[in-house]
Amino acid sequence: MASGNKPSNAARKARIEEMRRAEQARERRNRILVIAASTVVVAALVVGGVFVVKSQGDDKKSDTASDSKGGTSGDSGHFTTADKNGVRTWTGKLSRNHVQGTVSYPMHPPVGGNHNQVWLNCNGNVYTKAVHDENAVHALEHGAVWVTYTDKAKKSDVDTLAAKVKQTPYSLMSPYANQTSPIELSAWGHQLSVTSADDPKVAKFFETYVQGDQTPEPGASCTGGTM
């Protein structure tokens, strides 16, 4: 069984590495485009400043009206019982709308739903402070695995997982107080609870869900978002 997976694993690693190189090239192009676009925008503001301000004021009224209520995830369903690998799968709808403000998710950490239009950088990023769910969910949409932990997790486990994440494109890690297990691994629509970084299910989760079949937007960027 293991020998049959080797070609698949090698192909996935090669594909992820190719995506990383493509991202780096895209970032270089984007920097040039941003400089050029900034010049155009400044010129446009000088010429049509009054009209821009008025338009922004109208848009702001509209945005405030919708954002002031907060937001729901738009999700429906529930987690299934864990499979043989310990993974729970969300059954039902996971919405994918871009929203502003705080979103109320039915699961913690969230594994999908409405989210902020800016993704959380997930190119092996390890965050030492809690991050916004709304940005992290966008990273999951791009095919990232999100590792979270509570203060009940052993420091040795946190260090081991941090080292794993730093070596893995399309992954990120952060502390998360509101979860039932000391360690959770989340992907779009899937979640695994463990108590130890040495649990073999951890490696299996990374292997399966980093840019896995569940990814709504495979190959989308994991850099250039928010930190």
From TrEMBL:
Keyword check for Transmembrane helix: yes
Transmembrane listed as a keyword:
yes
Bilayer-crossing regions: 32-53
Q: What taxonomic lineage is listed for the species of origin? A: Bacteria, Bacillati, Actinomycetota, Actinomycetes, Kitasatosporales
Task: Alphabetically list the UniProt keywords.
Answer: Membrane, Transmembrane, Transmembrane helix
Q: Which Pfam families match?
A: DUF3105 (PF11303)
Q: Where is the composition biased (Basic and acidic residues)?
A: 57-66
Q: What is this protein called?
A: DUF3105 domain-containing protein
Q: Where is this region: Disordered?
A: 1-22, 57-88
